[in-house]
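INFO  loader      accepted 1 record
INFO  loader      residues=505
INFO  predictor   begin
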Amino acid sequence: MTKQLFRGLALFAALALMLCGCTAKPAADSGKDYLATEFGAVADGVTLNTASVQAAIDYISANGGGRLVFTPGTFVCGSIYLKNNVTLHLQKDAVLLGSLNPWDFIRDTVAHWTAFVLSVDQENIGVTGEGTLDCRGFQVANNLVQYVHLGLLEDPLGLDRVQEVKRPELIHFFRCKNIVMKDITLKDPASWTQQYDQCDGLLVEGMKVDAKCYWNNDGIDVVDSKNVTIRNCYIDSADDSYCFKSHSATGVSENILVENCIGRSSANGVKFGTYTRGTFKHFRFKNIKIFDTYRSAFTVASVDGASIEDVEIDGLQSLHTGNPFFIRLASRHEGEAPCLKDVVIKNVYAEVPFEKPDAGYSYEGPVEDLPRNVCPSIITGIPGLRIDNVRFENVEIVYPGQADSTYAYRGTSPEELAAIPELERSYPEFSNWKELPAWGFYIRHADGLSFQNVKIKVVGEDYRPAVVADDVNGLKMTNFVISQADAAEGKQQIITHNVTDFECK
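INFO  predictor   done
INFO  writer      dumping tokens
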């Protein structure tokens, strides 16, 4: 359906309902509730309700605002646009179910993404209630592939996996203000689950996300937005769970709080990036749990010119994740001058398994080219781009060990350390280097690192030392405890190369 035809039908439906004496009346205040069924929506799991739902939203917005309430039942719908002062409220056992026809979803001409619920340049909007938004993403995405084979849709990737922007997200809000997303369940997107791009004033609270039905199923993406609170959420996603991006060199992401949240991912638990162009500052993460996650519990990466500063992680439990921390500064493009500085990580307990942590999930992470022993936590810039001022306090990490030098080997001589590639143009993943020469921390091209009350333990045998620091200015270790029960007598656990101002006490 074309966008013009969609709007025409929506207007026709609104006029018809008003002429027929619809029971919904204009509200004297923005707190009025309107039932979706009063606008002709049918909760039978079959009827396509796009026109009636859009007519209801348009009417409520034009008449002072309020909530459009979906009572228990299943309402099938295509793309709808949320308008000023309107909240969708889904009662318990109410489901807003995505159409299986990909052409029922709109790719917005301003935001340039496709989504189930769209909003552009609106304010005082949201989705609340104990109901569910379900996009049926696996079926919709595969139906899109059928149209590729029929020559009706271009697929530049040629992978039978249509580009993310052409597959429907559940939520896409662009340049919106004062957004409340509360208690809702988001299920099975065909692309990212929810994207808030250039928004100001966002509360996401008590949300549950089940997003592991298809490729690129990020849990939440906050892009160039500010004044954001995400709390008491549970995200289970095929791709990064809590993701912060910048699509513009002039974009600013600031004043972000994430607290009391749980994540599981077949990629990263919390991630800055991958696309990072603008400025990120004043981020706070409190009381976060990441489990059964394929890559890192926390990735802080600037690889596209971004400035990332003033990030605090206070309270993290990382269980059964491929890597606790990956902190990366690089540049994938010429002429960029990114920076990454002032990161505090404290009050952490982490366990790294020997086995693949997301094995058995429907869209689990790839089986990597081997050989590679289990990776350490990584803090690394590149020559000329140095990470500055990272502090670890009250941290305990348990590694599995079992690294075998006859299986994969990386030495610690100056020549061997110099041979480790910089990979400044590579997509940032901790596994890119395959074997690294430490089992606990690998640090390179960084200034002003501090470790206080940090304990790292390896359970099985590991031929590598605990820590390798290469080209580091200012490294302070206070009460840094290394535990390796079967370490060879006299084994040197901290290797430094080109390190100045080093204190260990």
